[in-house]
Amino acid sequence: MRAVMLAEVGPPEALVAAEIPDPVPGDGQVLIDVEYANVTFVETQVRAGRPPHPAMLPALPAVLGNGVGGVVGARRVVAGLGGTGGYAERAVADSSRLIEVPDDMPMREAVALLSDGRTALGLMRLARPRPGETVLVEAAAGGVGTLLVQLAVGAGARVIAVAGGERKLALARELGAEVMIDYRDAGWASRVREQAGTVDVVFDGVGGAVGLAASELLGSGGRFCPFGMASGSFAPVSTALRAAPSSPEDLVALTRAALAHAERGRLRPVIGQEFALERAAAAHAAIENRETIGKTLLIVRR
Question: How far apart (Å, rounded) are the C-alpha atoms in residues 185 and 173?
């Protein structure tokens, strides 16, 4: 089968297309004929040898990719893979992790919601923004950020979108954000305070100095919820709310809930760019260079 291999950690070019044997399902597993593969920022960190947690670095050589959508027999499904195996024509998944895709939902949208949708819903469950509260979303034009903007608006909150560049801020505005701030501008946090005062919830997808500055905008009873480290490190915020590790069953339930939200028109995944499987290196480079908006997918077969 066609796949993209990582033989040793390094730059995007370390991802190389190859022909390898099909994976063999074990007990309680199935083989998925993959149509789309999910690409995440964390996977770029794994490829570079700098994952958020050392245990996330797989034994090499490996096929990266933690989520796919495709078919098992006559069933259209998406599934998490437990960390590896997604950048390939076929992938093995535990039967318990298979999630049926609604008949009227395009596969690409279901895959776009697989990891980002459950992350966004989990963060909303953690922070519980209320009507009238002010929510600041960092990386607001990213895969998770675009969903958080929509969910917070749907909860009746006022949303401040923080992102880099007018293109990304325009997308956040389209999704319902009321205040748009470019975090690359000096004094961006002061602009937030001038336009919105204190905030009630911060969804921190950048970490580092940006996340720390955002945490200082919180008022009494404010909730700081990190979900990413695009800066390369998590923000040093001791009061951050972090969810307990989710069980596989909880992840499946959150993904099903995300698909249900989309099916009812309450959530729209933003798919900003798609790359052919063999161009996985280009997808990683685009993400690292901050050139992407919304979700990035690999097209394995249509």
Answer: 18
**Other Cβ atoms closer than 10 A to 248:** 12
Contact by Cβ (8 Å): 43, 287: no
Determine if the pTM surpasses 0.85: yes
As a whole number, mean pLDDT of residues 290-294 equals 95
Burial per residue of 148-173, b for 16 or more beta-carbon CB atoms within 10 angstroms, e otherwise: bbbbbbebebbbbbbbbeeebbebbb
- The half-sphere exposure of 62 on its side-chain side, counting CA atoms within 13 A, is 18
Contact 101, 79 (CB under 8 A): no
pLDDT, tens digit, 9 for 90 and up, residues 97-113: 999 999 999 999 999 99
Burial 45-68, CB ≥16 within 10 A → b, else e: bbbeeebbeeeebeeeebbbbbbb
Confidence of residue 235 (pLDDT cuts 50, 70, 90): confident
pLDDT at 3: 98
Find out whether 116 and 143 touch, Cβ atoms under 8 Å: yes
The answer on pLDDT for 229 being more than 90 is no
> What confidence tens digit (pLDDT) does each residue in 266-287 have?
999 999 999 999 999 999 999 9
Say how many C-beta atoms besides its own lie within 10 A of residue 7's C-beta: 12
Do strands 295-299 and 29-39 pair parallel, antiparallel, or not at all (unpaired)?
Answer: antiparallel
Residues 57 and 111: their CA atoms lie apart, in Å, by: 23
Which distant-in-sequence residues (6+ apart) come within 8 Å of 26 by Cβ? Answer: 92
Task: Tell me the angle at which helices 188-196 and 208-215 cross, rounded to the nearest 10 degrees.
Answer: 30
Give the three-state DSSP class for 98: coil
Task: Say how far apart CA 33 and CA 87 lie, in whole Å.
Answer: 12
